[in-house]
User: What shape does this take?
Amino acid sequence: MTSNLTNPMNLNDSLDVLRRETVAAISEASDSETLAAIEAGAVGRESPIAAARRSLGKMAPEERRDAGRLINDVAKELEALVEERREELRADERAAKITAEAIDVTVDYTRLPQGRLHIIQQVMDEVCDIFVGLGYHIAEGPEAELAWYNFDALNTPPDHPGRLESDTMYLDYGKPEDEMLLRAHTSPIQARYMETHEPPVYIVAPGRAYRNDTIDASHLPVFHQIEGLAVDESIEFSDLKGTLAEFARQFFGSTTQVRMRPHFFPFTEPSAELDVSCFNCDGGESSCRVCKGVGWLEMLGCGMVDPNVFTAVGYDPEEVTGFAFGMGVERLAMVRHGIDSIRHFVDNDVRFLNQFPG
Assistant: This one.
């Protein structure tokens, strides 16, 4: 595109050369920037076409009209070709962008594993659902607790061994009225709830608890409990046994039997340990991996609420009675699923956790 268009003697030939070269370049332009450069070189302000137009003033009048018409015809043709090619390139660029951003919905992709609730949370939710179905409400409380609610309000005397630092995780150990600790059970929730609610009371209190236990196959310093409390007029021990028997049937199976053995807890009197019949062998087979041939599984502690507890929270023990129970969530999960060590719950081994999809 270096043809000399200012000489009227070879204007036709030069325009023809310019046209052929520019048409070829336009057709080979692969992007908008290249095309813009070709357009500027052919018909821009510094192009041969522009130079030829400026030279028209030097031509004789009889030559000027024909030369001007010829220059304009070539310029318009090249501008039309440039615009046509520009539209083609724009279409190609749009198509390329669509192709690059397209998602093939027929092609499979790498899926991240779906999350699930931990087996401990699954068991807690299931137990709470059973008691909600029996008319209970869920109650919650702080994990950093005052010694008053953890011990004193629950009829635990100052010299009880459970109050020693060797057993309880204190945050501030000293004067009994100011002692702060990590709750040793979820029973303090019951005391707090009774302080702010008039009877009747039917609650379950799930949550974490803390004790200075050495980690072994059946103990962790952080574990989970579900405590239950029922307070009303004329509640009897038979109500306690019937409630826990219904829970056992729903949790372990409809044929599950229960039995109670005398025990001692500071906050209940009388107190008992609840056993459930082995759901695996249904009768004490010597080879049973669950009950080891005993036929019964120790499951939870329970009893009638001690009158001293009612007095501590402002209830009149002459007007109301009640029962309470408490169960370890890890224990429930281990018994039902045949888990041999409580440490599996905190080892974070996905091979173990994946066995309980929920």
Summary: The two ends are 77 Å apart (CA to CA). Residues 299 and 332 are 7 Å apart (CA to CA).
